[in-house]
Amino acid sequence: MTSTPEGAPPLTxxxxxxxxxxxxxxxxxxxxxxxREIEDEAxxxxxxxxxxxxxxxxxxxCRARIRNATREVEQVVAALDDEVTDPxxTDPxxTDPxx
Length: 99
Fold this sequence. Notes:
Layout: H1 13-18, H2 24-40, H3 45-85
Helix pairs in contact: 2-3
């Protein structure tokens, strides 16, 4: 799993595509660990602030991944809808019923 070391630039939405080693599942697992640490209430205030910042970065990353996946699914569904409404769009041998 990848994590941002202290002092490293934050993982922003733009970096979501630039960090191929971090997956959505890994980001969610890290968010879960951070949540458990925060709920433990034994964190030093400085560590707490760093964990909250990292959690925000991970949330941005996950939101970007969800948006991208949603966009891709919508494109696939739209392409399928086009195939249903215009069978000649995907089958060049299909005849035009109006011809």
